[in-house]
Amino acid sequence: IKASNSLSVSLQAKMSRPVQARRLEGIDKNIWVDFVKLAATYSKVNLGQGFPDFPPPDFLKEALVRALSGEKDMLHQYTRAFGHPLLVKMLAQFFGKLLGRDLDPMTNVMVTVGAYQALFCCFQAFVEEGDEVIIIEPFFDCYEPMVKMAGGTPVFVPLRPRPSKDGRLMSSADWQLDPAELASKFSKRTKAIVLNSPNNPLGKVFSRGELELIAGLCVKHDVLCISDEVYEWLVYDGKEHIRIASLQGMWDRTVTIGSAGKTFSVTGWKVGWTVGPDRLLQHLCTVHQNSVYHCATIAQEAVGQGFQRELELYGKPESYFVQLPKELQRKRDWLVQSLDAVGMKPIIPEGTYFLVADISEFKSDVPDVPDSSEPYDSIFAKWMVKNKGLAAIPLSAFYCEAHKNNYNHFIRFCFAKEEATLKAANDILQKWKQEKTSP
Amino acid sequence: VEFTKVAADPSIVNLGQGLPDISPPTYVKEELAKAAANDRLNQYTRGFGHPSLVKALSQVYERVCGRKIDPLTDILVTVGAYGSLFSTIQALIEEGDEVIIIEPFYDCYEPMVRMAGAKPVFIPLRYKKDGNSASSANWVLDPAELANKFNSKTKAIILNTPHNPTGKVFTREELQVIADLCIKHDTLCISDEVYEWLVYKGNKHIKIATLPGMWERTITIGSAGKTYSVTGWKLGWSIGPQNLIKHLQVVHQNTLYTCPTPLQEALAQAFWIDYKRMDDPDCYFYSLSQELESKRDRMAQLLQEAGLKPVIPDGGYFMIVDVSTLNVDLSGVDEEQPYDYKFVRWMITSKKLSAIPLSAFCGPETKREFEKYIRFCFIKKDSTLDAAEVILKNWTKQTA
């Protein structure tokens, strides 16, 4: 009895100090946990979380089947920690070609568990207390907590919409950085800037001029560039995806991140990569070998074979990197038309498989909740999934806490969906509109 | 990283890195083929663990632990047990903390603790002479020495049972000593139990989390790679009370968010198959250790015949071996390096056999104490062990 008394006393005594590490402060909330749960419970049509609902390409599924068949048992065991030999070889060849450089698969490429882990390795490797990291808003939500977890301070700079001329629909190109404003964000504490082009959630594809502006500032202030290019193949209307690492003075200070999930429509395989100079990648390897060490072998083998095929077909019409954007552009146009027809104002994305729509003229069903700290678009999105069964993500999710109410009447849709899904979304929207306009 | 490069040479018999070269069970491979064919499973799943997998894990471990385990709040699926160690340490350890590490230790514990800003405090297993047998059971902690390592800064102790590299299976009494100290000092226990199914006759794997007062302060880590001989699947898990696991989940959602879907589904199906036969000796959880026991015994015999002194492991798939009995003179070679590093390099070049030097598993103070040992891995197919046999049988002939 005496022992259990001292046990409960000591437990109580220690419980006043939190058991968790301080690096978790302020990063425990995650919008996806909430919105994925809501979509799973209520949605009939899920255009929320970014993943395709169509199958991956046959050649990739076949590559996985090939890897699993026969006596290739060693594919079930550990492979090279910094990347499976076939995959890093193909990535070095492929990106070497695209960047116009000779890349060494052993030192210029590192494979990660999705682009997500690549981002984590970058922040852990390069950012620490006292460092500032510039993040362009709206941003893929993980950048902010990852910078904080590394002890750094995020510094935000917004893309600002230019009003559209003559009533035409806005394009993601109309959302731009103010050069003076951007320049003002660079200080001697600035360690890195995170660039995401094509941009999630807006779909903006940064132009050469815009990239040169950013590059110029990086060189001037000796700042690193973490370039998240997971949607690199999803560009529309003949636009070009330009890799900032290929600009003057940038190769040496840039880590370029890619994703098999987005490239080959297999988000569930969680294979990503980083490409960059050895002087930067060696530090990513240090983080990687102390956090995850190896990535799953089989998925890497299949993705390596996928790249082999794409290298052979590069630029040809049968290339998946040609066919996928063509297919998605059709879907984009379909969804744009669908949203426009009911009075939501879509911003036409130049890239990615997301688009953002302005709901300020559509929102009448969904009352604002005065005195609520929750931004209006979040209230709207939650109401929409619960009452109409259509899931989308509020744009405020992609802003820091302080700026969540700056753009609170937009929601993000994912259009990497089967025709049937997009049709079903259209039906919901049409029905909803009719219910609004009829007495 | 260093030794895997050297041993990638196919002419070398690789008994170094803990890599099975035996086949995973057929049904495990088949489940992955099935999962891969299902289009739904090629996209993101639940971040903290695929639903069917956490459900299967909760069932298996409820049975083993004799307590209710909530699949959604008490389990986190990670990229290998390695990822679980990382998530646990990042979630619960920080600057100002001390973490007790038992030597020799799986080498990642120290850098992970340092990366979290904390101070590793080492305590060695010490060899206790007990008759003529050299068993992993002879390697023990001194309770008084252990007690001295605990203070008000001690945040956690890392336990690894069955132990890599010695193969020691901590007894209930030994675990109770550790548990008593954890409770007395209100310390967490990070229990790396990846080899939990690999225990040999006469031994029982006991989960420290099942001891009184321990569930609420223990994170227990497991591994698909070691359970099913699929190290390349890189799936592991952390199991513990919600108030600790929730912090691991926060780390996970800020590091890689979710693990691959088809692999998790295949693993879930494999677990269901074995869960249903947990009363059956055919269950892979038991049949693998039976298969490995005979490999262990064969390996031990070969090493003894070659004049080496193996420490027979009670669990795991590693065996440490005292090489000082051979008296190989390496004094001419690089003085700075511990003896076992030099021995392994010499053995790789001249005998075409690789192993891992034990000082790789020690903190700076103890490296010299363990430098006469090297570690062999015996989860190898017969042909690999046959090749090792040839080398070992010829060894004494050459050095004589």
TrEMBL record, chain A:
Entry cofactors: pyridoxal 5'-phosphate
Provide one Gene Ontology biological process annotation.
kynurenine metabolic process
Q: Which UniProt keywords apply?
A: Aminotransferase, Cytoplasm, Lyase, Pyridoxal phosphate, Transferase
Any GO MF annotation of the entry? pyridoxal phosphate binding
Q: Does the keyword Lyase apply?
A: yes
Q: What top-level branch of life does the organism fall under?
A: Eukaryota
KW Acetylation (keyword) present:
no
- Kindly state which reaction or reactions the protein catalyses: an S-substituted L-cysteine + H2O = a thiol + pyruvate + NH4(+); L-kynurenine + 2-oxoglutarate = kynurenate + L-glutamate + H2O; 3-phenylpyruvate + L-glutamine = 2-oxoglutaramate + L-phenylalanine
Q: Name one Pfam family in it.
A: Aminotran_1_2
User: Aminotransferase class I/classII large domain: which residues?
Assistant: 44-425
Q: Which InterPro entries match?
A: Aminotransferase_I/II_large, Kynurenine-oxoglutarate_AT, PyrdxlP-dep_Trfase, PyrdxlP-dep_Trfase_major, PyrdxlP-dep_Trfase_small
Q: Quote the pathway field.
A: Amino-acid degradation; L-kynurenine degradation; kynurenate from L-kynurenine: step 1/2
What is one GO cellular-component annotation here? cytosol
The cellular location(s) given in this protein's UniProt record come to: Cytoplasm, Cytosol
Enzyme Commission (EC) number: 2.6.1.64, 2.6.1.7, 4.4.1.13
Protein family? Belongs to the class-I pyridoxal-phosphate-dependent aminotransferase family.
Q: How does it assemble?
A: Homodimer.
Question: By what name is this protein known?
Answer: Kynurenine--oxoglutarate transaminase 1
Source organism of the structure: Hemiprocne comata
Its gene name is Kyat1
From TrEMBL, chain B:
Quote the protein name from its UniProt record: Kynurenine--oxoglutarate transaminase 3
Query: Quaternary structure per UniProt?
Result: Homodimer.
Q: Which gene encodes it?
A: Kyat3
Q: Which GO terms describe its cellular component?
A: mitochondrion
E.C. number(s) listed in UniProt: 2.6.1.63, 2.6.1.7, 4.4.1.13
Question: Which superkingdom heads the taxonomic lineage of this protein's source?
Answer: Eukaryota
Kindly state which reaction or reactions the protein catalyses. Answer: L-kynurenine + 2-oxoglutarate = kynurenate + L-glutamate + H2O; an S-substituted L-cysteine + H2O = a thiol + pyruvate + NH4(+); 3-hydroxy-L-kynurenine + glyoxylate = xanthurenate + glycine + H2O; L-kynurenine + glyoxylate = kynurenate + glycine + H2O
Which family is annotated?
Belongs to the class-I pyridoxal-phosphate-dependent aminotransferase family.
Q: Give the required cofactors.
A: pyridoxal 5'-phosphate
Q: Which GO molecular function annotation, any one, does this entry have?
A: cysteine-S-conjugate beta-lyase activity
- Matching InterPro entries: Aminotransferase_I/II_large, Kynurenine-oxoglutarate_AT, PyrdxlP-dep_Trfase, PyrdxlP-dep_Trfase_major, PyrdxlP-dep_Trfase_small
Q: Which pathway, per its entry?
A: Amino-acid degradation; L-kynurenine degradation; kynurenate from L-kynurenine: step 1/2
Pfam families in alphabetical order: Aminotran_1_2 (PF00155)
Which one GO biological process term can you cite for this protein? L-kynurenine catabolic process
The region annotated as signal peptide is: none
Source organism per entry reads Hemiprocne comata
Sorted alphabetically, the keyword list is:
Aminotransferase, Lyase, Pyridoxal phosphate, Transferase
Q: Which residues form the Aminotransferase class I/classII large domain?
A: 12-378
Q: What does this protein do?
A: Catalyzes the irreversible transamination of the L-tryptophan metabolite L-kynurenine to form kynurenic acid (KA), an intermediate in the tryptophan catabolic pathway which is also a broad spectrum antagonist of the three ionotropic excitatory amino acid receptors among others. May catalyze the beta-elimination of S-conjugates and Se-conjugates of L-(seleno)cysteine, resulting in the cleavage of the C-S or C-Se bond.
